C-alpha cells in the first residue's frame, strides 16, 4: 500500500512540474516568454480608465512580419487572422 502511494505521489509531482505556467492559472507578468514566444501581460488600467485584462502578445522587436496582427498570420490563442499590412 505504501509503495502505491509513493508511486502515485511521484507521478503527480512529475506531471505537475511539466505543466506550463499559464495552464496552472498564474500570470507571470510583463516579462518572460512561454511556449511559442508569447509574452504574458498582466492586467492594467489605461490613463483613460479603460481596463485591459491579462493576455498574451508577441515579444517586442523591430519586425512586423512575426506579429499575430499582421496579414497572413493567425493568433494561436484566439484563432483570429491578422488584418494589418506588413
Structural key phrases:
86 residues; two-stranded antiparallel ribbon; 1 helix; elongated
Structural features, described:
Helix content is 19%, strand content 15%. It has 86 residues and is an alpha+beta fold. A three-stranded antiparallel beta sheet has the order 1-2-5, with no helix packed on it. Strands 3-4 form a two-stranded antiparallel sheet. It is elongated, with a radius of gyration of 19 Å.
E-strand count: 5
Largest sheet: 3 strands, antiparallel
Query: How much helix is in the residues?
Result: 10-25%
> From N to C, what is the helix and strand string?
HEEEEE
Mean pLDDT across the residues is: 73
Give the neighbour order of strands across the main sheet: 1-2-5
In angstroms, what separates the terminal alpha carbons?
62 Å
Rounded radius of gyration (Å): 19 Å
Amino acid at each position: 500500500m505504501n509503495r502505491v502511494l509513493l508511486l502515485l505521489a511521484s507521478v503527480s509531482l512529475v506531471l505537475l512540474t511539466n505543466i506550463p505556467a499559464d495552464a496552472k492559472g498564474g500570470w507571470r507578468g510583463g516579462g518572460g516568454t512561454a511556449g511559442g514566444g508569447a509574452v504574458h501581460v498582466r492586467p492594467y488600467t489605461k490613463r483613460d480608465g479603460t481596463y485591459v485584462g491579462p493576455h498574451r502578445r508577441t515579444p517586442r522587436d523591430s519586425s512586423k512580419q512575426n506579429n499575430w496582427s499582421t496579414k497572413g498570420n493567425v493568433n494561436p490563442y484566439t484563432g483570429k487572422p491578422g488584418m494589418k499590412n506588413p
